[in-house]
Write a structure and sequence with these properties.
This protein has 486 residues and is mainly alpha-helical. It is 62% helix and 6% strand. Strand 5 and strand 6 form a beta hairpin. 36% of the residues are buried.
């Protein structure tokens, strides 16, 4: 009971010291000591938190900009233990940091991290560029660098804009004359940006791959041959970790070749021989290879090829021959791929495509020929029935000889139609039964008369296609012909 009373007296005395001191550094030392002794919660219990915060803001207002930066660090330290009351701690911070503070280098140790955390709650127009400049200027304060990137990403509202800002301020690193020292700084920059992206869930922006490539090109500009290869490799590893995270955030960008521009840029920067050594030991490249292969599979399932993505794959694997081996393995269970498309990808893009073009020609397999015959039969069914029902009776009166010829033609058609339908049933072929229907245009399912027309949504089916049931699945052998709906 006495101990508890003594602790209360001690806490009250410490609180009085905090509320009466005129030295902000002393406040920080007291809070740090209380945190170390796990007594901080008693000190900031209830309304005491507001009293402590108000005192910090009062001392900050009496001082210069460096004092305000120190106050931001003290507030950040306090918020770390405020247990859900961070909003109270930072309530007046935007007002306190209305103007740009000095560099974080003015602080020591973990003060920089706490100050950087506080900057998340600042609102000044100076904030975006300040975060970028400081993230480049810091040497080894990695936690602070990460916090700066989180704030920068929020300010710039996308990864690509943040990367563009980094590239614009990259010249500040030119003051570091030693290439290896500069590259180590760049590696730390990319690593902390990658870590910040794991926390940040915003947009990647427009052309993020090109933005990363431009950033990498600026950072690696100079005498790269004078740097140790492992140092250069660490820069690439950091940059590709950022690339992998962007793909993870928005996989749709992985389907566009420019997303991998940084891979080509990295190869160009270190040279062909060093690149071969790098990809043999890189963990980031292994991850990117999986992303690229999966993107290639998605594109192949759209019956498309992409020579630029194939080029990026070749850079990541080292050669087209190795790409072909990897693609064959990755496409192994994709049984729905067009054979010609599969062959193109599996050959590393060297196979000549013999795919059916928009000329509305059917293939030369037995099923396709039977299917084409079935389509012709069904397409002429109404006309032949009308000829036998309406035209022949009239010709029997005016021209019996012609009527007899027409009867034989109609009868021959009916027999041919029965044979075609019987063959189709034996081969499990059916028409799509869409003729005359208005449908959503899909280039993968329809053949547009006159060739593909971008921007068309609604089309009219003018000729049925043919489908085949195979192993429980239905595959289109002959696409329906369509024309734009007027």
């Amino acid at each position: 009971m006495v101990d508890g009373h003594e602790q209360t007296i001690s806490t009250s005395a410490i609180l009085r010291t905090v509320l009466t001191t005129t030295d902000l550094r002393q406040v920080q030392e007291i809070l740090t000591a209380e945190m170390a002794q796990q007594k901080i919660q008693a000190l900031i219990k209830g309304a005491n938190l507001d009293r402590v915060c108000n005192r910090i803001y009062e001392l900050a207002e009496r001082g210069d900009q460096e004092t305000r930066l120190t106050a931001a660090a003290v507030l950040g330290r306090l918020a770390a233990v405020a247990r859900g009351r961070e909003a109270q701690v930072f309530a007046r911070l935007p007002e306190m940091l209305a103007f740009e503070p000095p560099s974080l280098d003015a602080l020591k140790g973990d003060e920089r991290t706490y100050a950087a955390q506080s900057l998340r709650h600042a609102r000044g127009g100076w904030l975006p560029e300040y975060c970028i400049r400081e993230s480049l200027a810091l040497d080894t304060a990695e936690n602070a660098r990460k916090e700066l990137f989180v704030t920068a990403l929020t300010c710039y509202d996308s990864v690509s804009s943040t990367l563009a800002a980094l590239a614009n301020h990259a010249s500040s690193l030119n003051a570091i004359e030693n290439t290896e020292t500069r590259y180590r700084r760049v590696r730390r920059i990319f690593t902390q940006l990658s870590d910040a992206l794991k926390e940040w869930q915003g947009a990647v922006g427009e052309s993020p791959g090109l933005a990363l490539s431009d950033c990498l090109e600026v950072f690696l500009r100079g005498n790269s041959e004078t740097a140790d290869s492992q140092v250069s490799f660490s820069v690439l590893e950091g940059a590709f970790a950022v690339l992998a995270r962007m793909i993870e955030m928005r996989f749709s960008h992985a389907l566009h070749a420019e997303m991998y521009a940084a891979v080509e840029q990295g190869k160009k920067a270190v040279g062909v021989f060093a690149w071969s050594e790098y990809i043999a030991q890189s963990e980031a490249i292994v991850r990117l290879r999986v992303d690229m292969l999966e993107a290639a599979l998605v594109i192949a399932r759209q019956n498309r090829t992409d020579i630029r993505i194939m080029g990026a794959l070749s850079a990541a694997f080292g050669s087209r021959a190795q790409v072909g081996v990897a693609i064959k393995r990755h496409f192994k269970d994709a049984r729905d791929l067009d054979p010609d498309v599969r062959e193109w990808w599996s050959s590393g893009g060297e196979a000549t495509s013999s795919r059916r073009t928009i000329e509305h020609k059917v293939g030369n397999t037995e099923d396709q020929q039977i299917g084409a015959l079935l389509v012709e039969v069904e397409s002429n069914k109404d006309a032949m029935e009308k000829l036998g029902r309406d035209a022949i009776p009239l010709f029997e009166i005016d021209d019996p000889v012609l009527a007899s010829t027409l009867k034989r033609a109609v009868s021959g058609y009916m027999e041919m139609a029965q044979i075609a339908r019987r063959l189709a049933r034996m081969r499990k072929l059916t028409t799509t039964s869409l003729r005359g229907a208005r449908v959503e245009y899909n280039p993968l399912e329809h053949e547009m008369l006159g060739g593909h027309q971008p921007g068309v949504r609604k089309v009219k089916v003018v000729r049925d296609g043919v489908q085949k049931e195979f192993a429980g699945k239905v595959k289109t052998l002959v696409k329906p012909w369509v024309e734009p709906e007027e």
